[in-house]
Amino acid sequence: MTEASSSDTADEVETADVADDGTPERSPRTSRGRLGEWLILALAVVLAISGVVAGWLAWNDDTIEQAQTRDAVLVEARQHIETMNTLDYREVDEGLAAWADVTTGTLHDQLVGVSDEEKQLLAEQQMISTGKVVDAAVTDFDASSATVIAAVEVTVEDDADPDAEPTVKRNRFSAELLRVEGEWKLENLQQVAVNLS
Questions:
Q1: 193: nearest Cα among 171, 169, 168, 167
Q2: What total number of domains does the chain contain?
Q3: Which of 16, 66, 133, 160 is the most exposed place for a label (fewest CB within 10 A)?
Q4: Span 180-191, pLDDT tens digits
Q5: Which of 162, 104, 103, 92 is nearest to 129 (CA)?
Q6: Is 132 part of any domain?
Q7: What is the mean pLDDT of residues 134-139?
Q8: Which carries the bigger pLDDT value, residue 12 or residue 47?
Q9: Beta strands per DSSP E along the chain
Q10: Considering only CA atoms, which of 109, 136, 143, 141 is closest in space to residue 192?
Q11: What is the extent of the structural domain holding 84?
Q12: For residue 185, is it within any domain?
């Protein structure tokens, strides 16, 4: 019987290594080893993706900051150009003060230096002009200066002739702006000739 017992034991050992469907079962040690390999591989992939994402975000920070600066320049330039094309003869002092508020440098100095005689002439013309920027673009900028081009419609009402219809003038401007104490201000505003050919 000893031979039968040892033969039965050998059969049991063989059947322990074979699954019911006939495929060999893996030992727990082999499965754990492969699980560890997969975990290391997954960790390496996650670290690689994290590195790529971090690099992209760092590169994009500059791009986002530039876009925000460009947007701020455009918003303020549009408002300032509209202000500079708006004046009511009944409120000349207020209009000139608004012009001075949106300008800097030589342009600002010229506006602050408008004489009483010049103010009187503006009042006597009895004109009300209202500027509206219909299109604008930033053509150049950095952290402290910018250049903007703008298409402007200026509606002019002539109070000296109450029967006259308001007229609309379309002009193009080139504006140079400087950043002064966190705000963009017009340093120069020039009308640009329109080439009709």
A1: 171
A2: 1
A3: 16
A4: 999 999 999 999
A5: 92
A6: yes
A7: 97
A8: 47
A9: 87-88, 127-141, 145-158, 167-180, 183-192
A10: 136
A11: 50-192
A12: yes
